[in-house]
Every structure is written in C-alpha cells, then in structure tokens.
Specification:
The chain is α/β, with parallel strands linked by helices. It is about 15% helix and about 25% strand.
C-alpha cells in the first residue's frame, strides 16, 4: 500500500475526494473505492452521497478489484475513528482517511499510520485524475 501512496494519480484521487467533501470545511464526508481494474489501471469509484453528519456509508456490493476504501473527515477531526478501524478489520481491507492536512492509513488489522500529519498534501501534479461515479 505504501507504494500506491507514492503514485501521483492515486494521490490525485484522494485530493479529488477531499475537494468533493468541501475540503474539510463541512461536517459531511465522501467515500470511494480504490480499484485496480482488469487492465491494470487504478480507478476511484465514488460512493453515492448521503449527506450524513460526519459519516458516510455504502450499501451494496464492493466492486471487483477493490484494493482499499477511502473516505474523508472534516479538517477539525482528521484522525480515523474506532468505527473506521473496526470496518477495516471487518472487511480485511486497508482504509485511507483523508482531510486537507492529514492522510491516514488503517491496515486491515486496524493499525493506524499517519502518512501525512498537519501538512498540506493536496497539491498533486495531476488534477485530471478524478473519482468517477460508481455505477451499479
């Protein structure tokens, strides 16, 4: 997973997700799946928006090829929650929690690693990389 986070395209996906959440200024979150498709390309599939207070949810089937779950947090509460850790463990899948100045990785065992802490990381070189709407 560490190698993926060095990818400008993947970092651009996470930045797009944060921008879609109001860049951390709103008390809402956005979620997406990071998918490796059958052609070897990374894609970011945006969850339907639910406008929940400081939470987002996905109901349905996780897309084939999903390698991680990503979601945003407001800038005043950037750290992953215990609920986030439980979800990563339950799904046995890494989670990324993103806000404008913080980026966390939750491993599938629930361990949290701060990848970026209190530092602007969203100036990605490729702003053309965007999350696309998930089609069912």
């Amino acid at each position: 997973m560490d190698e993926l986070l060095k990818s400008p395209a993947i970092m651009a996906f996470f930045a797009d997700l944060v921008r879609r959440s109001g860049s951390g200024h709103r008390n809402t979150e956005r979620g997406a799946f990071l998918v490796l498709d059958e052609e070897g390309r990374y894609r970011c599939l945006l969850w339907p928006y639910h406008n929940g207070y400081r939470r987002e949810r996905f109901t349905g089937k996780i897309p084939v090829g999903t390698i991680a779950v990503a979601h945003t947090h407001p800038k005043d509460a950037p750290a992953p929650s215990f609920r986030d850790q439980r979800a990563a463990k339950r799904l046995q899948m890494p989670f990324i929690v993103a806000s404008p100045r913080d980026l966390f990785l939750i491993a599938s065992d629930g361990t949290v690693t701060a990848l970026v802490r209190n530092q602007w990381w969203m100036d990605t070189p490729d702003r053309r990389q965007r999350c696309e709407k998930l089609t069912r």
